[in-house]
User: Fold this.
Amino acid sequence: MTAIRSILFTLLLLNCVPALGNDADVKRREQAVVTVKRATEFYRTQVASHGGYVYHYSLDLSQRWGEGEATKDQIWVQPPGTPTVGLAYVAAYKATGDHYYLEAIEEVAAALIYGQLESGGWTNCIDFNPKGARVAQYQNGRGGGKNNSSLDDGQTQTAIRFMIQADAAFEFKNATIHNATMRALDALLAAQFPSGGFPQVWTGPVAIQPIVQANYPKHDYRTEGRVKNYWDMPTLNDNVCVHVAHALRDAHQIYKDAKYLDALKKLGDFLLLAQMPEPQPAWAQQYNYQMQPIWARRFEPPAIAGHESQSVVGLLIEIAELTHGEKYLKPLPAAIAYLRRSTLPGGQIARYYELNTNRPLYMHRDGDEYSLTFDDSDLPSHYSWKSQSQVDKLQKQLDNFGKPTKPKKYTSQEVGQIIQDLDANGRWVTTASGDRLVGQAKLKPGEQFISSAAFSENLTTLSGYVLTE
Assistant:
């Protein structure tokens, strides 16, 4: 431990670690630094494939899962896959200054650059086998097939956020990383509609479309208005706009280029346009070019979307703070009041509310067929039909707008538990509770696996503790 203590205080002198407190704090930070290194060594040398990662692994590493079972040549871009792990390495590098993590960052960047599409972004998976089942049209010429850069579930956005941080970690001197990052950011900006919104996917710059205020469709939403290529149109589904906003925020903070802040403001303007009029002043998942709610997948009807609406309220508060634009706050009192009166018994918000009537709207599934219903007694299990109300939290955020916020602090107790949970092999092992895991069948309660989400969260927490004053 003497050698470790010496290293820590050397880093302190180099301003890599802030001033430490008493002996217990020093010891806990020493333990955190050692644990971060042990966990990273296992993940980097035993778990990584081609420098990238998937969501879950069996304990013996013989099975790998992203959205479905993955081969050794497949890594996942969609969180909590490769970029999520990469961001954890960035946190470790910032906390320690240890170039070991810089090497890990470079490996993750190389994996993502391999799978960057000709259209500039990423799809959910990178297949290093040129004849693999999930191969796409990579910019390096080694793939083939689809060229769909995707914003679904934060795929391209999270990759961009990692690449920005990797570029900064190398002080913008790694030309390969820098050029790939600029290419991705340019493609993202080109995918923004004149209204400020974004499609779910793009293959090139988007077509010019009118700037229109959201409005209710005149036709019967149950039987009309289906659009085959709904993914080409403005979307809020699965928090696309939140992930885009965070990528633009990071780009502006790192590169200090006004074009990223301008794009963020345009996104905020789109969210103002996308708010439906009374009696439902909230947001839909998916819109057509006339800014009317439309169908997406078979179980995603035109409707007011409770989950996405709550996310938009929080995002508009964040955009107002980042841009000093209080106009983004103006629609929020009406939206919060609507969400409050739409809250279900038990404090939940329905995923969908019928247009105009505001009745909670659900789906019944019979095999591969879905039918609309107002009955929530037999809901398909593959989708989240209700979520916990965040209305009080959002109201508090709005009330506290402009007030300084305290940075998150990590307690010695929670850090100590994370350190203790690392096993002798350098793994954090997760035990299944019976809840469905993304991309794979439900594991039996008590079954154990390795989780990229748990690894990334634990590494980031420990790194944050090392940096805490």
Notes: The two ends are 22 Å apart (CA to CA). Confidence is low (pLDDT under 50) at residues 1-20. DSSP finds 13 helices and 15 strands in the chain.
